[in-house]
Amino acid sequence: MLGRVNHVAIAVPNLAIATESYKTTLGAKVSEAQALPEHGVTVVFVELPNTKIELLEPLGEKSPIAAFLAKSPDGGMHHICYEVDDILAARDQLVAAGARVLGGGEPKIGAHNKPVLFLHPKDFFGTLIELEQV
Q1: What range does the domain containing 13 cover?
Q2: pLDDT classification of 61: cutoffs 50, 70, 90
């Protein structure tokens, strides 16, 4: 079911500072910031040869990233995203196996303009998992 790792997401308290650090200190290629109101975040992607790092900043007080940063003010790893060929088939297989899909179970369009779903971290050893259809 799982394909390659699409990205690892890191919640940050200040996207501009984090972006600059990845650019200047690490010499990374970083995308422009993109607001995703449906997900409550602003994101940038750090392009790596084998995957991406997604830096997330809260977009509004009700953002799930704001809640994450309230518990971890310095930021930290938020989720890992795996690619799947068919997100609905993956969802159905996971639900049948007892996994919980967050947000009502219907895919939303993610930062790459592709359908995404999130899986409950308690079902995967404390790790929030995002699935993205490729």
Answers
A1: 5-133
A2: confident
